[in-house]
Design goal:
With 233 residues, this protein is of the alpha/beta class. Helices cover 34% and strands 21% of the residues. The protein has helices spanning 2-12, 23-33, 81-90, 98-105, 121-124, 128-131, 149-157, 182-198, 226-230, and strands at residues 20-21, 41-48, 60-64, 75-78, 94-96, 113-116, 160-164, 170-177, 209-216, 222-224. The strands form three sheets. Strands 1-10-9-2-8 form a five-stranded mixed beta sheet. Strands 5-4-6 form a three-stranded parallel beta sheet, with helices on both faces. It starts with a helix and ends with a helix.
């Protein structure tokens, strides 16, 4: 624990927690301070002016990061026949119908992301209590209930990231790795922020994006000047 504290203090050197950095400055500092023995994830957190307890203030969606997420995702697909074959050809890790529903119901979940064809949803709907709390329930709004199985699987395996606002009005996601170039991380963060901004719900009043910060797994969070994200730089 002392070692972690020492590393964290070292990472905080030269970082002003009260200052607002441009996205480029923040990424440079975060990358320089990501010194763990593993490839740290770069994370973005956005405080939004919403109360997700109200249905018309829920924020959720999916974004394809231009440079991928750097994370390998295991993808499960509920499909039959030709669509099941399409899923396998696209690289899905687990494919099935009633058999897969039984496995998941018994707690055997061998995937991180879940996709289904529309005709499978009456079956998959029974898994709400299992998949719902994990945020894995297929949903047409984020492209995980679709007939375009091949593209959905490729997106999930590559750079697509789902986001959903938490109770405190915060949306957060991993948008790359410390080993990515600064330019790639900046591109990914801007794409993520843009997708969240476009997902502004009808019930949101006043300022939508209140705060944005970026951090690495083991490093301090840096506040970002929103203008550098949305100012078309």
């Amino acid at each position: 624990m002392a070692q972690h504290g020492k590393r964290y203090r070292k990472a905080r050197e030269g970082v002003d927690r009260d200052r607002f950095y441009t996205i480029e400055e923040a990424v440079k500092l975060v990358k320089e301070r990501a010194r763990a023995k593993f490839d740290e994830t770069i994370e973005v957190a956005m405080n939004l002016g919403v109360d997700p307890r109200h249905a018309d203030q829920m924020v959720r969606g999916v974004v394809n990061l231009p440079n991928g997420s750097g994370r390998s995702q295991r993808v499960g697909v509920f499909a039959r026949g030709a669509k099941a074959e399409e899923a396998k050809a696209a690289g899905a890790d687990v494919v099935g119908a009633e058999d897969l529903v039984e496995k998941v119901n018994s707690g055997q979940i061998d995937f991180d992301r879940c996709i289904a064809t529309p005709d499978m949803m009456p079956l998959v709907g029974r898994l709400g209590k299992v998949l719902g709390p994990r945020g894995m329930m297929p949903n047409p709004k984020v492209g995980t209930v679709t007939m375009d199985i091949a593209n959905a699987v490729k997106g999930a395996k590559g750079g697509s990231v789902e986001f959903r606002v938490e109770k405190a009005g915060i949306v957060q996601a991993g948008v790359g790795k410390a080993s990515f170039t600064e330019a790639a991380l900046v591109q990914n963060i801007k794409a993520f922020a843009d997708a969240v901004a476009k997902a502004k719900p009808t019930g949101a009043k006043g300022q939508f994006v209140e705060k944005v910060s970026v951090s690495s797994t083991m490093g301090p969070g840096l506040k970002i000047e929103p203008g550098s994200l949305f100012g078309g730089q």
